[in-house]
Amino acid sequence: MTKRIGVVLLAVLTLLAACAPQNSAVETSRREGSGERIATPKRITVAVRADGAAVWTTGADSIIELFHAGLVNFDPPGDPTAQLAETLPTIENGLWKLFPDGRMETTLTIREGARWHDGVPVTTADAVFGVALGREFPQGNFGASAFANIERLDARDERTIVVAWKSPYVQANWLFSNLFAPPLPRHLLEESFLADPAGFVNHRYWTTDFVGNGPFMVREFVPGLHLQLRAFEDYVLGRPQIDEIEVRFIPDANTLMANLLAGEIHLTLGAGLSVEQALRVREGWSEGEVIYSPYYATQAVAAPQFLNPDPSILANVQLRRALAHAVDREELVQSIQAGIGAPSSSLPAPTGPEFEAVKSSIVDYAYDSRRASQLLEGLGFTRGPDGMVRDAAGRELPLPVWTGAGDDVYERTTLAVSDYWKRVGLAADPRIVPPTRDASILASRPAMYLTRLRTELDTRFLSAQIPTQENGFRGSNDARYGNPELDALVNRYFVTVSRPERLSTLAEIVRHLTENVVIIHLFHNVVPQMKSQRLRMWSRARFERASSTPSAGT
Q: Which residues on neighbouring strands pair with residue 396, listed in sequence order?
């Protein structure tokens, strides 16, 4: 269950909305022929690396909350907070109730005055409709399991909704966020959805007819080019101080860099440039600066293939431990991220609230090429005069290392990690795979896959999330690792409301993942955002809290 902390860009919402100083970024000009000063619209141009096929488009999670608001949002560290809801349900305020029979109940009330951009009030009917769509099209890593735990929805009136849960569910207050079944305009969509559920994803609502409820209205959408947004005068949390935003979809990093250097872009959002690329732009962009988030939202990992791996010895944990010891993670941070960030050793990040509770359970694999060689020897491999290790039959140990093309960080990391494994004698073969919509290709790769992983627990390690031919290769378990013990721990975590007990379970999960080297941790991703210094209203400290991003995959 992946929180898209990048949508916390909107902490950026708090910078754009009415709580910002009234005179902070006002542009003025003089009326011709007089000394009168008049205000001109405040406009900014934002760039995201996405194809822009739809308004709510893949790869542009970081802009969605500009034009669509949930009842629930997430603060910069990633904790849920009320947005269109008056109050977030908690045990303490009585809006989250646990019953003796194991069931649970959460209650939310929509803020009075919340409206869609066509003027129609946001109601509980829209929340119920959002859940209906969520069941039909489960988002990200939530899958069907979270929705299956919802027993019923009771719309008490147009503003108050009560959710009955079959059993405790620790992330129940994520419901109705843009991640987990956001409200959608039933008055515009229900008829089409009921008539053709399968074809609903192609409805023109997602492109030319989008109507949201966030701080900005969609004024124009040109697929693959741009999104024109205008401040929504009736936004329930206050009119934004920025009048207009142009969002440009620029999927190519080099084109994005050129636009920044030409002064065409004021701000990037989401995973746009690598640290190295951002620093290159800063050298040539006198008006620009690079901002990094202090929160580690994602990390780079190498995911072994557990389902029919090739070589088959990859299923042996001793080999995976050797691979982990062979990688110098500190050096990776220096070479890939210019020394910004930190190596990773477990799922929770050291900047996260759960790290202290689990760090003693981490089985770490410090860089030690000698230890890696010893583990390989223990598996029956010997190193020849050419530096390559071979088994008793004289065969080398091939190790394909895959990643998707188009991401500078992961392409360079794949080459670097392959080189480390070559140094201990493995026939590592880096492969940059062209972009594809065929989910079977990366899922069924022979061996290693370098990818991005959230720094929080979600359902991606469950056996039910393994992508296979039988399920159409749907599922977020990139390693395709299945283990009943781990399944039980993850399921227990999500039904344990008591924080101390939940953290104890998380510590067991971390121990299992690291002891069995289910993934090889590399480093925490630093996502630089480029910002023009002309954006005077933007507090640097507050923007830093807004710039961590996935995603996401989510």
A: 390
